[in-house]
Write a structure and sequence with these properties.
alpha/beta, 35% helix, signal, cytochrome c-type biogenesis
Length: 168
């Protein structure tokens, strides 16, 4: 069902404007953590730069993007940015168990929340998988990236570092 909803959202997204525009405060983003019995609220991360990454276990590019984002996170932490940013992944699998199996195979060190009804994906109008947003410390969306190719990780890093350093 989620794939069908996602396909319809993608078609609608092609003909309507994005619900989340650059320069806009990120909408309320809250969800149950996939691997822990906790809730994560994006508002609790104000003051940090956040890379918000929407993904699913059935997404081919996500098999590359999640591990590469995890390595990017490790590199930035080692490079002196541990308190300035966080990556938060939003999983869109209907069955959270599929996402848990995926994360056993492709583990990450950053928080993952589950969105089995794709309600957050609808708010953000996700057109493709994965889709990422960079949100500055004030909660404003400053960058959007759709899809993933390994060669794009350097641009994602550049955008994160610029945002952490207060650059547009």
């Amino acid at each position: 069902m989620t794939r069908w909803i996602f396909a319809v959202m993608g078609l609608l997204g092609a003909v309507t404007a994005s619900a989340v525009e650059l320069g806009q405060v990120a909408p309320e983003t809250r969800g149950e953590r996939l691997l822990y019995d906790q809730t994560l609220d994006l508002a609790d991360l104000r003051g940090k730069t956040v890379l918000l990454d929407f993904w699913a276990s059935w997404c081919g590019p996500c098999k590359q993007s999640l591990p590469m984002l995890d390595q990017l996170r490790s590199d930035l932490v080692a490079g002196g940015y541990p308190d300035l940013f966080e990556i938060v992944a939003v999983n869109l699998d209907e069955n959270p168990e599929a996402a848990r199996r995926f994360l056993k195979r492709y583990p990450v060190s950053y928080p993952v929340i589950t969105d089995p009804e794709a309600s957050l994906a609808a708010v953000y109008k996700i057109p493709t998988m994965p889709t990422s947003f960079i949100i500055n410390p004030q909660g404003v969306v400053t960058w959007r990236h759709e899809g993933f190719r390994p060669s794009e990780i350097s641009e994602i890093r550049k955008q994160l570092v610029q945002t952490m350093n207060g650059q547009p």
